[in-house]
Amino acid sequence: MLGGVIFTIFQGSNLDSKAKQWRLAADFMNDIGMLMDLISPLFPRLFIFILCLGSLARSVTGVASGATRAALTQHFALQENAADISAKEGSQETAATLSGMLLGMLLAKLTSGNTVAIWLCFLALTGFHMFANYKAVRCLRLTSLNKDRVKIILKTYLQNGKVLSPADVSTQEIVLPRFSTKFTGYESLLHKEVTLGAKISTVNVPGGWKNFPEMMKRSATDNYIITHQHREVLVVLHRNSKREDYLKSYVHSLVLISLLESLNPEEAEENSFVWMEKKYSIFMSELGAVGWNVNRIHIVPDKWRAEWHVSAIKDLKVE
């Protein structure tokens, strides 16, 4: 029980954005929990400890499976019929459980008294269960936008101007969850990190804080301030920023990281603003055209926010 609470504290905000990954992880954890229960009698001195590990695995399974079921139900409810989808999913699960019980009783009778056969059956069926779940998750073509999907889409778009469809992206997604909410990129983006929702006090303004008004003026029409320092891109979010701003600032960060591969920091930052002004709206239109739901944004920033008056910045004069 305590394990489920701790898991929710640290990963609850990621269950929507990583529904596929945590759905698969929940099934794996359930299998691990059953394995712990079965092997616990083999280790009398560690009996309680192993049982606790099994209980911990099942508690995480309960939280993750319940939360991701709700998220995936929304994906399948194409006609706003989430209740209908949920009811049918429950009926299918009941039918599968009854069938499993009948086959389990038959298998128990056939393997009664044969320890080797029991373990072979358990391991074989567990392996098949994990493989089937992996293939099922691989088949999911979610149309919502999270960090990983945006990363994959934008990398291809910056290379050849093509926007990948949900089907294309699903083949490249990692299906096991990362336990960090920080940015970890692909290939050439590995050496950079994005902090979305950074503290404004962590921003290192080039030339000192006297140049901060100029930095803010560049973001006069946005609900975020973006800057690059050392090996990190920092995004300070306005307190009124919304999911659309999270997506825009994250795309801006990835564009900046890409430009930093070939330009110095000053040129890269300037060109990133030009790219956002000229191409971001086109990019978003093309996302919708190939099947992405641009209204379902699951990008989770850090908790820090700042406040500034956008209207005042537009008229700001820097001397």
Automatic annotation (TrEMBL):
<dbReference type="Pfam" id="PF04884">
    <property type="entry name" value="UVB_sens_prot"/>
</dbReference>
<protein>
    <recommendedName>
        <fullName>Protein root UVB sensitive 3</fullName>
    </recommendedName>
</protein>
<comment type="similarity">
    <text>Belongs to the RUS1 family.</text>
</comment>
<feature type="transmembrane region" description="Helical">
    <location>
        <begin position="116"/>
        <end position="134"/>
    </location>
</feature>
<keyword id="KW-0812">Transmembrane</keyword>
<keyword id="KW-1133">Transmembrane helix</keyword>
<dbReference type="GO" id="GO:0016020">
    <property type="term" value="C:membrane"/>
</dbReference>
<feature type="domain" description="Protein root UVB sensitive/RUS">
    <location>
        <begin position="1"/>
        <end position="160"/>
    </location>
</feature>
<dbReference type="Pfam" id="PF24160">
    <property type="entry name" value="UVB_sens_C"/>
</dbReference>
<feature type="domain" description="Root UVB sensitive protein C-terminal">
    <location>
        <begin position="162"/>
        <end position="308"/>
    </location>
</feature>
<dbReference type="InterPro" id="IPR054549">
    <property type="entry name" value="UVB_sens_RUS_dom"/>
</dbReference>
<dbReference type="InterPro" id="IPR055412">
    <property type="entry name" value="UVB_sens_C"/>
</dbReference>
<keyword id="KW-0472">Membrane</keyword>
<dbReference type="InterPro" id="IPR006968">
    <property type="entry name" value="RUS_fam"/>
</dbReference>
